[in-house]
Amino acid sequence: MTIGNRERLPVIDHLSYSSVNTYRQCPLKWHFKYVEKIPEEVIGSALVFGSAVHSGIERHFQTLLETGKAPTTEELLEAFDECWASFDSDLIKFGKGDDAQTMRELAKKMFTTFQASHFANPKGTIVAVEESMRAEFITGVPDVLARVDLAVQSGDELVLTDFKTSRSRWSADQAQSQAEQLLLYANLAGRVLDGKHIKLQFAVVTKAKTPQLEVHEVSLDTARLDRTKAIFSRVWDAIKSGNVYPSPSQMNCQSCGFKSACRAWAG
Description:
It is a single chain. By secondary structure, the chain is an alpha/beta fold. The strands form 3 sheets. Strands 3, 6, 7, 8, 9 and 10 form a 6-stranded mixed beta sheet that branches. A two-stranded antiparallel sheet has the order 1-2. It has a two-stranded parallel sheet with strand order 4-5. The chain has helices spanning 17-25, 27-35, 45-67, 73-85, 100-115, 172-177, 180-189, 222-240, 250-254, 259-264, and strands at residues 2-3, 6-7, 14-15, 43-44, 92-93, 125-135, 143-154, 157-166, 197-206, 213-218. The chain contains 10 helices and 10 strands. It has one domain (43-231): Lambda Exonuclease, Chain A, CATH 3.90.320. Helices cover 43% and strands 22% of the residues.
């Protein structure tokens, strides 16, 4: 981050919720991932699985948007397989008792549960699937790039949904605690809606023997949005100052893909 005695600001033309959250968890991991762009040594199977399930659900809504007809479960599994194959299989680290086949079988159960839910056939008009938005979030901070999983227009209301997979069911409090990302989406989307009402929600599918899908609505909280803006501003200040350091913890380090780089880092 420095050349001689001069600070060298990394070339960053935008931020995202994910990148800011990574910095909050571990500034050194953020540096390896977003500045040096070092390939990860291992990839947790949970991350691969979540991405692949997400791809299947995306395929469902994209097909609805384009044809008006819901795809089959097998078509969702095709999207799952394509996403899984995009990862280097040699780098995937499985948890105890898991392998690629058992996780695919679990995905099929989750897709079946999803397609049987009311959420799979939303009321209103699907206007966007995996839609990117980029705009200034805070003056003096790079643009924020956001990607909305699903946007549905119902009358004068726009419903923005973020998909999640989880080991267990979420409580209403847990949904509210994760609201920062959706509030960011609402702030960016609200600039082009001419004052129309925005509804925010999470759709959570559980990774259980008998999967469940639940939808949790998140309230638009101005104070919470201001807090999110303050976090982005402070993180950007830290990035500009070259403030990079490891933040070891049992939870973060266990699944980190930059262990060798971290051990070799000397400040």
